[in-house]
């Protein structure tokens, strides 16, 4: 698998709109990051080499909704943790959830399945999607994810995600033990 050298700057070539917005937001907030470009990845198992290069686990992002499609949640988990909708619903005190459809993900967050990322809240200007972060993730020093395309991955401080990035996007995350 191709993985570039680590850089601390935004790419100079053209990227997808979300990825471009991510770099602009991080710069505006003064959030330092490390970045690698890589071959396209579709599954968490494919991210192991990227994790090793960045020195941080790539986090899993799940988008879920209730049966009526009135409540949406972007859930950030450790890479190996399975999303348990029943446990999540209990922790959030909400009705049982299921995975959001690909169409719903594109409509609400501007990302397709396989490219889900916490950074997609930049596309949720109406704050219709609630953000929940597993406590294991919140307690780690470093956070790694894709910036809107699964051909690039970023590493930055988890505190910057929780205390700067998400609030600046109008999303106060809920920390949950799953």
The CATH architecture can be named as: Alpha-Beta Complex
What is the name of the CATH class? Alpha Beta
- Relevant CATH superfamily: YbaK/aminoacyl-tRNA synthetase-associated domain
Shape: globular
Rounded to the nearest angstrom, the radius of gyration is 15 Å
Helix content: 25-40%
Distance between the termini: 32 Å
Mean pLDDT: 95
- How much beta, percentage-wise? 15-25%
List SSEs in N-to-C order. Answer: HEHEEHEHEHEEHE
Total beta strands: 8
Would you tell me the structural class of the helices and strands?
Answer: alpha/beta
Sheet bearing the most strands, described? Answer: 5 strands, mixed
CATH topology: YbaK protein
Helix run count: 6
Low-confidence stretches: none
Strand order of the largest sheet: 4-2-3-5-8
Structurally, how many domains make up the residues?
A: 1
Describe this structure in words.
The protein has 178 residues and is of the alpha/beta class. It has one domain (17-176): YbaK protein, CATH 3.90.960.10. The chain is 29% helix and 22% strand. The chain has helices at 17-29, 48-54, 85-92, 102-109, 135-138, 158-168; strands spanning 34-37, 60-66, 72-77, 97-99, 129-134, 142-145, 152-157, 174-176. Strands 4-2-3-5-8 form a 5-stranded mixed sheet. A 3-stranded antiparallel sheet has the order 1-7-6.
